[in-house]
Design a protein that fits this description.
The protein has helices at 22-43, 49-71, 76-83, 85-97, 105-121, 131-153, 162-175, 183-198, 227-252, 283-288, 432-441, 447-461, 474-480, 493-506, 578-589, 595-633, 637-654, 665-674, 684-697, 705-725, 728-732; strands at residues 293-299, 305-310, 312-313, 318-319, 325-327, 345-351, 362-363, 365-369, 374-377, 382-385, 394-400, 463-464, 490-491, 511-517, 521-524, 527-531, 535-543, 547-551. By secondary structure, the chain is an alpha+beta fold. The radius of gyration is 36 Å and the shape is elongated.
C-alpha cells in the first residue's frame, strides 16, 4: 500500500530552466501584458502614438523573455546587469532613428539618458517622438519587464504585478490631463493579473529536511482538473475583467468631473535668445515700405495669419511670456475652443527671404503645422522653428478660425484665477494718462463695454500715420494719448495695439498684444501675396469661456485688418439683452438645484462608494498576509511554531480538509499530505509536527530560531501546494477570502457535534 517516498529532486540551479509548459507560456503572456499596460497609457500623449506603442510593446516582450532566459543561468543581480546593455543600445539606435537635440549620435543618446524626463515635461502634448522623449519610457518599460519576470520566477506572483502597476500609475501621472483615461490599459493589467495568478508554474522542488522514509507514496496519483475546463474558465474571467475595465469604468466615472494635475506646469522651458526679439519693431519699417514681398498663401478663401503673441511688458517693449515647448506637427486643441468654428481652415504658406525670425505664420488656432522641429506656446498660440529661421520654408498649416459674428460679449464675464494676474500687471513708471483715460471712459460698465470703450477712444481720437517712428514703451504711449475729448497723436498699429493693451490692463482687464498679417492681395485663383503693408498688430482681451478676443484698434489705414469682423460690435439680432438673460436665469434657478451639480454630486457618491468597496476587497489580502507575517516572524521561537501551526490548519480548512476537531498533530499532518500532489514539498511537516509536540507537551525543548524558521518555510510551501491543488477559480480568490480573518485558532469546520 505504501512505500518509502523517493528522494525529492534537488532545487533548481542556474542552467536548468523551468519546463516550458502551456501554463508557463500563459503566465509569460500575462507578464508581457502587465508590462505593456503602462506603454498603452503613455503612448496616448505622443504625436506618433502607434509607433511608440509598437516600440514599447516590442520592448516589453524582449525584456520579459531575456530576463527569464538569463535568470535560468544567473542570479537576479547578474540578470539585471547583463540585460542593461540592450536598452542602452536601443537608445543609441533611437538617436540615429529619431535624433534629438544632441549634435551627434552618442552625444544625443547621452543627453537623452540624462534629460529625458525634463524634455518630456518641457514639450507640449502631443509629445514629439524623438530620442529625448523616447529614452525614459523605453528604459522604464525594460526595467518593469525585468522586475516582473524576476518576481514571477521567484514564485511571487502577486509581487509580479506591482512593477506593471507602478509603471501604469507613473504613466497616468506623467500624462496628466493631456491624454484620455487609461481604461484599456487597466483592462490589460486586469487580464494580466488573471493569467499570472491562475497559471500553474512548474513544480518547485527542494531537498527538504529529514529522512526520506518518512514520506508517503500513494498507489495512484489523483486526477487533476481538466486543462480544457481551466482554459475556458480563465478565458471567461479574462473577458469579464477586460469588459468591466474598458466598458464599466467609463460608465462608473461618467459623472466625475475632476481633472488631473498637469506635471508640465512644473517646468518652464528655457527661453531661446532669438525669441527675445520683439516683432513689433519691424512694423514701422514695413508700414513705411508697404509693397515688399513677405510670403505667399494658397487657400480656398482669404485668411488672416497669426505670427506672434506678446504678453510680457517691461515698460519699454513687449516680449513673449515664456519659452517654447518642443512639439509634434499635430498640436493640441485650443481651450476653450474658438466660438463659431464649424471646420478647420487649410492653407499652404511659402515664406520669402525677408520674413525675419523663426516665428511661423499660422491660421487661427493652429492644429497642424507641416514643419519639422517645432516649438509651441499653447498660451499664446505661437509656433516657432527650433532649427533655424523660417525664411524660405514651404509648409501646410491647418487651423481653427473663430467666427465672432454671432457672439454677444456683453454676456461674458472676466476670468477668475491667479494665472490671469500676469496679463493685468503693469511695471512701475506708468504715465498718469493711462489712469486719466480709464477713469473717463472705462471706469464703469460691464467687462466688454470697458474694452469696447477703450477701442473706440483710440480709433476716434487718433490718426494712423505710416511714417511714425517706431517705439511702443511708456514714453511713446504717453506722447500718443490725449485726454478724452481731445485729439491725440498719430502712429502705426504698433503704438495703438500697445496703447490698447496698457489701457485695458489699467482698467483691470487681462490683455496682450498680437502681431499678424491681413489676407493679402489675390494674384491667381486661390493664391494670395502678403506684403509688408499687410502686417499689423492688434490687442486681445481674455473672456471667460471664449478665450482671447481680438480688438483691432488702429484708426483707418490698411493695417486695421478686418475691422468688420471684430467682436466689439457683433451681436446677433433678436437675441435677448444681458439683463433679461440674467433675470430669467435667476428666476428659473430659484426653485431648483443645478442639474450639472446634481449629476456631479451623484457621480462623486458613486465613485466614493465604488472606491470604498474596492478598498475593502484589496484590504483582505493585505490583512491576511500581514497576519501570516506576524505569526511566522514575530515573538519567541515557540510562538512562531504555534503561529505556523495555526496557519497550516487554516490552509487545510480552506482546502476543504476533512479534519476532526480533536485530531492529533500526527493526524493533521497525514491529512495535510493527502491534499497536496506528490510533487509538492511536504517533508518539512515532520519537523513542524515534532516542534508543535515539543512546544505543547515538552516545554519547548529543542525549539530554537532555526526550527521556527524551518516550520515557517514548511507552512509557506504547503500553503502554496494546497492553493495549486484547488480549482482555478478557488486559486484566484484564495487570498481574497475574508473568512480566515474571523476564524478562531481552534477547531476546523467539521465539529461533528463536539464542543
Amino acid at each position: 500500500m505504501t512505500a518509502p517516498a523517493p528522494e525529492r529532486a534537488a532545487p533548481p540551479v542556474p542552467g536548468r530552466p523551468y519546463r516550458a509548459s502551456p501554463s508557463t507560456l500563459l503566465a509569460c503572456v500575462g507578464l508581457v501584458l502587465s508590462t505593456v499596460a503602462g506603454g498603452v497609457v503613455v503612448s496616448a500623449s505622443y504625436g506618433s502614438a502607434v509607433t511608440l506603442l509598437a516600440v514599447l510593446a516590442a520592448c516589453s516582450v524582449v525584456s520579459v523573455v531575456v530576463a527569464l532566459l538569463l535568470r535560468s543561468r544567473h542570479s537576479a543581480l547578474r540578470t539585471i546587469l547583463t540585460g542593461v546593455p540592450l536598452p542602452l543600445a536601443s537608445v543609441v539606435a533611437a538617436a540615429v532613428w529619431v535624433p534629438g537635440e544632441g549634435d551627434s549620435v552618442l552625444r544625443g543618446a547621452g543627453e537623452a539618458l540624462l534629460h529625458s524626463g525634463a524634455r518630456i515635461l518641457t514639450s507640449t502634448a502631443p509629445t514629439p517622438l524623438t530620442v529625448d522623449t523616447l529614452a525614459l519610457p523605453l528604459l522604464a518599460t525594460w526595467l518593469t519587464g525585468t522586475a516582473t519576470a524576476l518576481a514571477w520566477r521567484a514564485e511571487r506572483r502577486a509581487l509580479a504585478l506591482f512593477p506593471g502597476l507602478a509603471l501604469l500609475v507613473g504613466a497616468v501621472v506623467l500624462n496628466g490631463p493631456v491624454a484620455p483615461p487609461g481604461f484599456t490599459a487597466i483592462g490589460l493589467l486586469g487580464v494580466a493579473a488573471v493569467l499570472i495568478m491562475s497559471a500553474r508554474p512548474a513544480p518547485r522542488t527542494h531537498s527538504g529536511v529529514g529522512s526520506p522514509s518518512l514520506g508517503i507514496q500513494v498507489d495512484q496519483r489523483p486526477a487533476g482538473p481538466s486543462p480544457v475546463r481551466d482554459a475556458v474558465i480563465t478565458g471567461l474571467i479574462c473577458v469579464l475583467t477586460a469588459t468591466m475595465a474598458v466598458l464599466g469604468g467609463p460608465a462608473l466615472l461618467a459623472g466625475w468631473s475632476a481633472e488631473p494635475g498637469d506635471p508640465r506646469a512644473v517646468l518652464t522651458p528655457p527661453m531661446d535668445p532669438q525669441q527675445a526679439l520683439n516683432p513689433l519693431s519691424y512694423l514701422p519699417g514695413w508700414a513705411a515700405e508697404p509693397d515688399e514681398h513677405l510670403l505667399t498663401v494658397e487657400s480656398d478663401q482669404p485668411v488672416e495669419l497669426r505670427w506672434v503673441a506678446l504678453s510680457d511688458f517691461t515698460g519699454t517693449t513687449w516680449l513673449p511670456e515664456s519659452g517654447y515647448r518642443s512639439a509634434d506637427q499635430v498640436l493640441p486643441a485650443p481651450v476653450p475652443p474658438p466660438p463659431g468654428a464649424d471646420s478647420d481652415v487649410t492653407a499652404r504658406i511659402s515664406v520669402g527671404e525677408d520674413l525675419p525670425g523663426s516665428w511661423a505664420p499660422v491660421v487661427g488656432a493652429p492644429r497642424r503645422v507641416g514643419l519639422d522641429s517645432l516649438g509651441y506656446d499653447a498660451l499664446t498660440g505661437t509656433v516657432v522653428t527650433r532649427d533655424g529661421t523660417v525664411t524660405g520654408r514651404d509648409y501646410e498649416v491647418v487651423g481653427t478660425v473663430a467666427d465672432w459674428s454671432g457672439v454677444d460679449l456683453s454676456r461674458s464675464s472676466p476670468p477668475v484665477g491667479d494665472v490671469y494676474e500676469l496679463y493685468r500687471e503693469l511695471p512701475p513708471g506708468a504715465p498718469p494718462i493711462l489712469d486719466e483715460v480709464v477713469s473717463a471712459i472705462a471706469a464703469e460698465g460691464d467687462y466688454h463695454h470697458r474694452a469696447r470703450g477703450i477701442a473706440e477712444y483710440l480709433r476716434d481720437s487718433h490718426t494712423f500715420d505710416p511714417e511714425t517712428p517706431g517705439g511702443h514703451g511708456y514714453a511713446h504711449i504717453d506722447a500718443l494719448l490725449a485726454a478724452p475729448g481731445g485729439q491725440g497723436g498719430s502712429g502705426t498699429s504698433e503704438q495703438f495695439a500697445s496703447a490698447f493693451a496698457l489701457l485695458t490692463r489699467a482698467a483691470g482687464l487681462p490683455s496682450r498684444v498680437a502681431v499678424g498679417f491681413a489676407p493679402g492681395t489675390e494674384r491667381d485663383e486661390g493664391e494670395y501675396e502678403v506684403r509688408t503693408g499687410d502686417a499689423h498688430a492688434w490687442g486681445e482681451v481674455y473672456f471667460d469661456g471664449l478665450g482671447w478676443v481680438p480688438y483691432n484698434v488702429t484708426p483707418g489705414g490698411r493695417d486695421e485688418g478686418g475691422a468688420d469682423e471684430t467682436p466689439e460690435s457683433a451681436q446677433a439680432p433678436d437675441e435677448p439683452e444681458a439683463g433679461e438673460l440674467d433675470s430669467g436665469s435667476e428666476t428659473e434657478n430659484d426653485g431648483q438645484a443645478d442639474p450639472d451639480r446634481q449629476d456631479t454630486t451623484e457621480g462623486l457618491w458613486v465613485v466614493a462608494a465604488s472606491g470604498g468597496a474596492l478598498t475593502l476587497v484589496l484590504l483582505i489580502p493585505v490583512l491576511r498576509l500581514a497576519r501570516r507575517a506576524r505569526r511566522l516572524s514575530a515573538g519567541t521561537p515557540t510562538d512562531r511554531v504555534l503561529g505556523a501551526w495555526r496557519e497550516l490548519r487554516e490552509a487545510l480548512r480552506m482546502g476543504a480538509a476533512d479534519l476532526d476537531s480533536g485530531a492529533t498533530v500526527t493526524e493533521t499532518v497525514v491529512v495535510a499530505r493527502s491534499l497536496v500532489p506528490d510533487t509538492a514539498p511536504s517533508s518539512g511537516l515532520d519537523h513542524l509536527a515534532r516542534a508543535v509536540n515539543s512546544t505543547g507537551f515538552g516545554g519547548g525543548v529543542g525549539v530554537d530560531a532555526p526550527v521556527a524558521e524551518e516550520a515557517a518555510r514548511a507552512v509557506r510551501d504547503h500553503q502554496r501546494g494546497l492553493r495549486r491543488a484547488r480549482p482555478r477559480f478557488r486559486r484566484l480568490i484564495w487570498w481574497f477570502d475574508p473568512r480566515p480573518l474571523f476564524w478562531r485558532d481552534g477547531p476546523s469546520r467539521r465539529r461533528r457535534g463536539r464542543r
